[in-house]
Amino acid sequence: MAEVLQAGLWGLVAGSALLLGAALGYGLRVPQKIIASVMAFGAGVLLSAVSFELVGEAYDQAGLTPAVVGTLIGALAYTAGNMWLARRGARHRKRSGHARSAAQPSEAQQGGSGTALALGALLDGVPESAVIGVSLLDGGAVSLVTVAAVFISNVPEGLSSSAGMKKAGRGKGYVFTVWAAIAAASTVSAVLGYRVVGSFSPAVIAAVTAVAAGAILAMIADTMIPEAFDDAHLAIGLITVSGFLVSFALSHA
Question: What is the pTM of this model?
Answer without folding.
Answer: 0.85
